[in-house]
Amino acid sequence: MPHAYSQARKAHTEEHDGIRLQKLLAQAGFGSRRKCEEMITDGRVEVDGELVTELGTRVDPKTQQIRVDGSRVRLNPRHVTLALNKPKKVLSAMEDPKGRYTLRDIVGDKYERIFHMGRLDYDSEGLILMTNDGELSQHVMHPKYEVEKTYIATLEGRMSGNVCRRLVRTGVQLDDGWIKLDHCSIIDQSREQTIVKVTLHSGKNRIVRRIFGAIGFPVKRLVRTQIGPIKLGDLKPGSYRVLSSTEVRSLSKEVGL
């Protein structure tokens, strides 16, 4: 009984007086309480734009903005961000009037107001990020913060390394203008096909398929393996995982939050 009373009193204190800054940082995934105390005393933490070095400081994460090394600390227990491995023949949508399989069929109704950040076309596979954090979603999808994306593409025909280098150096002209790859490398090939790893920032519709189709190497299979700092890893097709606070923080930093 005394334990329950002390827990209730502690919750009451945190609700009305705020939470100790080092505890909040630990909850946000910055490390142990001791490590977070060192970050504060080292002058790495700001509250509402003011440097805070005093260890007793209490903050209200609902009303105050906390930053570590200039990056926003995001702490909302209702917010969740997922990495999902979209199989082929799954629509990048939450519902479909035609009754096709959608992302909703994979994640179900467990998470309130969750939505996908960006798309993959119907026949493409791989990493899609989903969240119910509206601010994060807006930044990830905003053209100003074009996040780097990596794909593994299986192409029809045998393509030379010179073509890869040309796509990075000069690019190719499409109907809506010139586009260049950030990186292109051949990882396997035969007489009939070439497998390449490509990286680019553009979020235009079907952009990888359009680039290689324009130079005579149609894409037979396309898998997105990375978005910014978030990797697909060994996530199985048709499954998803919740991103860690460290991953969400690195993604937020990438898009200026």
Automatic annotation (TrEMBL):
Which GO biological process categories is it annotated with? Answer: enzyme-directed rRNA pseudouridine synthesis
Q: Where is the RNA-binding S4 domain?
A: 19-78
Q: Which Pfam families match?
A: PseudoU_synth_2, S4
Q: Which reaction does it catalyse?
A: a uridine in RNA = a pseudouridine in RNA
The EC number of this protein is 5.4.99.-
Q: Which terms does the record give in the GO molecular function aspect?
A: RNA binding; rRNA pseudouridine synthase activity
Is Isomerase set as a keyword in this record? Answer: yes
InterPro entries from the UniProt entry: PsdUridine_s_RsuA/RluB/E/F_cat, PsdUridine_synth_cat_dom_sf, PsdUridine_synth_RsuA/RluA, PsdUridine_synth_RsuA/RluB/E/F, PsdUridine_synth_RsuA/RluB_CS, RsuA_PseudoU_synthase, S4_RNA-bd, S4_RNA-bd_sf
Q: Which UniProt keywords apply?
A: Isomerase, RNA-binding
Family assignment?
Belongs to the pseudouridine synthase RsuA family.
Report the protein name in the record: Pseudouridine synthase
